């Protein structure tokens, strides 16, 4: 899905039921790929969708409540800060995400 709203501080991405608990999905927001994850507790997290190491698809990675692991080389990135848990790998940008009335929203 592609979402673009000039000057907006929040963007509606679509119904939260399109996400599978415990998995991620990539959206294109203002020309940028963003991975959005629905955690087991019902909260949503968002970060850049591309691993800075070798371009792995973070939305396809394994998650827990704190990190997503890149499926290519198992580098883990914090949902809170975007920092990689391994030295020498750049951080990814994180975004605020929430669900309002069943609609997934992303802060930009």
UniProtKB/TrEMBL annotation:
InterPro entries: Rieske_2Fe-2S (IPR017941), Rieske_2Fe-2S_sf (IPR036922). Keywords: 2Fe-2S, Iron, Iron-sulfur, Metal-binding. It comes from the Bacteria. One of its GO terms (molecular function) is oxidoreductase activity, acting on paired donors, with incorporation or reduction of molecular oxygen. Pfam families: Rieske. Residues 11-106 form the Rieske domain. This is 2Fe-2S ferredoxin. It comes from Rhodococcus oxybenzonivorans.
């Amino acid at each position: 899905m592609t979402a673009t709203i000039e000057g907006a501080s929040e963007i509606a991405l679509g119904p939260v039921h399109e996400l599978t608990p415990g998995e991620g999905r990539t959206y294109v927001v203002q020309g940028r790929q963003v991975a959005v994850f629905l955690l087991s507790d019902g909260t949503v997290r968002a970060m850049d969708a591309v691993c800075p190491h070798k371009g792995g698809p973070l939305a396809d990675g394994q998650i827990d409540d704190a990190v997503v692991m890149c499926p290519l080389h198992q580098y883990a990135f914090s949902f809170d800060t975007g920092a990689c848990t391994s030295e020498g790998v750049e951080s990814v940008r994180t975004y605020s995400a929430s669900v309002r009335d069943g609609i997934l929203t992303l802060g930009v």
